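During the no-cost extension, the postdoctoral fellow (Dr. R.K.) reprocessed legacy sequence entries with the updated structure-token encoder. One reprocessed record is reproduced below for audit purposes.
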Amino acid sequence: MARPDKAAAVAELTALFKGSSAAVLTEYRGLTVAQLKALRTALRGNANYAVVKNTLTAIAAKEAGLGVLADELKGPSAIAFVTGDPVAAAKSLRDFAKANPALVVKGGVLDGRPLTAADVTKLADLESREVLLAKAAGAMKAKLYQAAYLFTAPASKAVRTVEALRVKQEETAA
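Re-encoded structure tokens follow.
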């Protein structure tokens, strides 16, 4: 029978997996406590960064339906449980890894789908949600202006044609 403290740790990790939209698995070997604290600060608001035990995390990942993550659990592991914007969390991890090469992103899970380290980098390269929404709104606004112009063009052309005919009739009458 499992020890109560280990069972509680597995239950907590399972809850973290189920409560997060994404999880990014990293190797933190070579980082100091101060650097880990700085990483946690960088991730604050978007993710919870926790150093985990591989065996207990593998059990929790399987219970949460994320068995693909269990295969990557080798060496000293830590997981960023993303509860906020996954793109912002990936950017924070990428930027921290550039400044501290000891942090290695192994992979992760986004909405139940496995991610490789390259996928996490691609996610970090995306623009923020607000920028993407602004671009979409701008594209929709441009299409609306084009449609409005298209609908008003025949009427304005007709007005110009009638005015030209009126001017021509005045010239011939005079």
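The longest helix spans residues 129-173. Helices lie at 4-19, 33-43, 54-63, 67-70, 86-99, 117-125, 129-173. The remaining legacy entries will be reprocessed before the final report is submitted.
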